[in-house]
Structure prediction request, 305 residues.
Amino acid sequence: MQTTLSPGAYVKVFAALLILLAVTWSVGYVDLGAFNMIFALAIAVSKALLIMLLFMHVRTSSQIIRLAAGAGVAWLLILITLALTDYMTRS
Amino acid sequence: MNGAESTILAEQFDNIEQQHEADKLGMWIFLATEVMFFGGLFLAYTVYRFTYGHVFAQASRHLSDICGGTNTAVLLLSSLSMALAVRAAELGRQKQLVRLLLATAVFGIVFMAIKGFEYHKDYVDHLVPALNFEWDGPDRGNAEIFFWIYFAMTGLHAIHVTVGIVILLVMAFLGKRGKFARNYMPIEVAGLYWHFVDIVWVFLFPLLYLAGHR
Prediction:
């Protein structure tokens, strides 16, 4: 079974990534307050998902590989969330 | 098991699919440890950004978003050529594989060249902590922390890009000798590593270069 996609599909993913880069870069020149960072992170997560699902073939991978791919991200979120529950509640 | 498979199938596996699965799983587990490796720095960034947000925004504007943004595009392009290289490897197109691996390595070298130019610019602008750091205005110490984190994160990332370039060049050399004609998994696994390094930069660009609106 072939696991890689067609060249056309890869070029489309690349074009989508470039558009997302252009959006995040342009928004960096507008003052949205706290939403600047939220917007930038949302776009970064979208780009990471495109790369993981299509360039790294997670979309067509087995459950165990999806689990390994998700595990690192999950532990990183635990690390940051638990640390922030401390720092954000200090008076 | 047929004859062609038996020559590349290690004895601990039942069939070639299981072996490929193990190859990929090993790389993904390594990448999870890499997420943890970079994770400490991302946590340090988050905590200091939360505590000294205003200074971080000011400090961020001293970085060149032209360099950072261009480098993002260069790395995304390198990921495209890497994805196409893995495809060529799977389809057994050895010449195309070597050309695409070399193209990916060249994009990586372009990234490092722009990064080197930018580090030089940071040095000239007196932004290097402990070496020549100068800061007009209050909160000098906290601004310096931003640049410590900037150099630590981009430096660690640059080391990963350098390792990736070496891997790509070795793979191109071996590919030229037809090493991947029967088993393309080393290319698939090298591709996973290269895409991971790309993803790290996708987060570094907005966090470091666009921390304050310009």
